[in-house]
């Protein structure tokens, strides 16, 4: 599968198997990418991570393998297999892999946040 393409539609898959672990790497696979939002799977090898960033949109993270450490606005959150968290829009956040893990990241882009 090419990392720039979405997953094949109308075909069942096992979510934890759509992305592999690679030594000393962070790997991503686009599941759905639309102008209104996207869903991406990530795998992170031990010792890897994603540097601090922020997004103008809420982001939902769900751990699908292993355990992850997430920093959200300087607060450390430990997420276990099956757990998820909403990272608020504009919050600074980063990820650390103290052990290898896989996660799904879902971003919904909306112009209606001011009405929530």
Report on this structure.
The protein has 116 residues and is mostly beta strands. The chain has a single domain, classed as Sandwich (Jelly Rolls). It is built from no helices and nine strands. Strands 1-2-9-4-7 form a five-stranded antiparallel beta sheet, with no helix packed on it. Strands 3-8-5-6 form a four-stranded antiparallel beta sheet, with no helix packed on it. A hairpin with a 2-residue loop joins strand 1 (26-34) and strand 2 (37-44). It starts with 25 loop residues before the first strand and ends in an 8-residue tail after the last strand. The model has no long low-confidence stretch (mean pLDDT 90).
Key features of this structure:
116 residues; mainly beta; Jelly Rolls; five-stranded antiparallel β-sheet; four-stranded antiparallel β-sheet; 9 strands; globular
CATH superfamily annotation: Jelly Rolls
Specify the helix fraction band: under 10%
Using the 3D structure, state the CATH architecture: Sandwich
Radius of gyration: 14 Å
Kindly name the structural category.
mainly beta
Tally of helical segments? 0
- Low-pLDDT sequence parts: none
Write the layout of secondary structure elements.
Elements: E1 26-34, E2 37-44, E3 49-53, E4 59-66, E5 68-72, E6 75-79, E7 84-87, E8 93-96, E9 101-108
Antiparallel strand pairs: 1-2, 2-9, 3-8, 4-7, 4-9, 5-6, 5-8
